[in-house]
Write a structure and sequence with these properties.
It comes from Streptomyces pyxinicus. With 415 residues, this protein is an alpha+beta fold. The chain has helices spanning 26-29, 42-69, 100-113, 115-135, 138-149, 168-171, 263-298, 310-338, 344-369, 380-392, 397-409; strands spanning 9-13, 16-20, 91-92, 95-96, 155-158, 175-179, 182-193, 200-207, 213-219, 225-229, 241-252, 300-301, 304-305. The chain folds into three domains: 36-149, Butyryl-Coa Dehydrogenase, subunit A, domain 1; 155-262, Butyryl-CoA Dehydrogenase, subunit A, domain 2, CATH 2.40.110.10; 264-409, Butyryl-CoA Dehydrogenase, subunit A, domain 3, CATH 1.20.140.10. The protein has eleven helices and 13 strands.
Length: 415
Amino acid sequence: MSEHPQSAHEHHAGGRTAVRIHAADPAAVEADFFHIGELVPPEDQERIAAVRDWARKNVAPIADEYWERGEFPHQLIAQLPELGIAGLQFSGYGAPGRGALVAGLTSMELARVDPSFATFYGVHSGLGIATVMECGSEEQKRRWIPALLRWEKLAAFALTEPDVGSGTARGLTTTARREGDTWILNGRKKWIGNATFADLVVVWAKDEADGEVKGFVVEKGTPGFTPHRIAGKVSLRSVQNAEIDLRDVRVPEADRLQEAHSFKDTAKVLRATRLGVSWNAVGCAMGAYEAARAYALEREQFGKPIAAFQLVQDQLARMLADITACQAMNVRAAQLQDAGRLTDQQASMAKMFSTSRVREVVAHAREILGGNGILLDHEVARFWADAEALYSYEGTRDMNALIVGRAATGISAFV
């Protein structure tokens, strides 16, 4: 039987076994093992490939440096309009109208290179643009969406508070009081990505009159609106998260999101963005796998690449299986979203599962690298650390599990 020219095989030399590694088929070893990229039309495949190439050429070479410094590469924003990736899933007002699956695959490709940059993208496109699309009036969409799509204005989304994370549906403490045609906002927000530089920040606050949660678009520089960058993070360090003080912030009625009447409207946005974080987790896992695989083929111990050892191959196989399972779930969730059928429970399951699996994948990658797994030099350390934030934000694993559990049993286990 002839040897396959693209496989690793053994031959005997002087009584000892030597392992010869040949270049493997890229389709068989890249993290898209089941070729999910082929599920979209050719023009979308080209768009996604362009994003992949752009990220590898422009983001990858500087990702470790900016991550270590805790800074964001603002200079890259000017290059984004030509990629045409803002608001991919939406139609109208200049949006591309390519659907949730294309948007998810794009997020995946960005996170495959740098989860921090993918998070920046998700905050602007998945939270900022999505909120205006879902909760804005026609006039507000016409006023804000085109500039957001062109990246002329950047968006942020302020829901979480210092003392209110998972309990925002019932316990939001930021307040809004109406005085004529003006709203007065008071409170604090925390973990708000992009907030240190965003031009438009969607702030969610409880109306003192009726107790319902409403959304307000606050422009950068508004008196009383003060963001403070959060320092000391060990995950997604390039993301500029902020704690925001709101002291008698005056917002005109024209800037209150006219279709945001209660937390149910907030939840419509979170359903879609929860799936976006799930895609980011898939991308993070793919990047970790590919970095670990490359290392395993290059690193030699006992006279051969460590990729030749059974334990390493077992870990790579487990990683690929986890990634593929997450991809399959996310693809189906995106298809349901495009059909208008995605439920909160389905989005929660995808986020819960993918962010749990990414933890396992990055742990395997870190294990393959041994001591080098804690160095930025080999990329895995960054993916390993960033997985922790993906695991927690947009709903912790436990909270999403309870949403799925309520669907499974018909009984709410929330307090």
